[in-house]
Design a protein that fits this description.
mainly alpha; binds protoporphyrin IX containing FE
Length: 129
């Protein structure tokens, strides 16, 4: 990835983000730790994630244009997010990036960028709380 380009560009733009989201959510839904947190109809979540990741990775501000300030930690507060769940979320993303053939350096860079927010969203130490 060139140092002056965005992750959005390096991954291949909007179509690539769309593909990433479509590869990621089936893994999320199938994961025993995080799958049950998501609604049966995953399409609206996928659309929001497509918009969010597009802007998070340096593309057009699609999410903010429609939904306003991301406030992602606050939006995740209704869900009990443990360290194990953050790890599971990142593992699904790692698997999706690998499945799509994203090269290793870029994959690690993307995961590093996502691990900040993922661990920041932890809001409980155990499922019981
Ligand atoms: C740490 C582990 C994570 C878990 C367990 C988790 C789980 C969830 C859940 C349960 C929802 C709500 C689905 C619904 O609408 O009912 C959600 C929404 C969302 N998540 Fe996460 N998430 C995690 C990390 C992340 C990360 C790292 C990002 C992006 C950096 C992210 C971006 C989003 C977005 C954009 C939405 C939609 C927000 C909206 O309603 O507008 N999530 N997540």
């Amino acid at each position: 990835m060139r140092s002056d380009s965005t992750i959005y560009e390096a991954l291949g733009g909007g179509q690539a983000i769309r593909q990433l989201v479509e590869t990621f959510y089936p893994k999320v839904k199938a994961d025993p730790l995080i799958g049950p947190l998501f609604p049966e109809d995953i399409d609206p979540v996928m659309e929001k994630q497509y918009m969010f990741l597009t802007q998070f990775f340096g593309g057009p501000q699609l999410y903010s244009d429609v939904h306003g300030h991301p406030m992602m930690r606050a939006r995740h507060m209704p869900f009990p997010i443990t360290r194990e769940r953050a790890d599971a979320w990142l593992a699904c993303m790692a698997a999706a990036l690998e499945e799509l053939g994203v090269d290793e350096d870029l994959r690690h860079f993307v995961l590093q960028r996502l691990s900040g927010p993922a661990y920041h969203f932890i809001n409980t130490g155990s499922e019981q709380e």
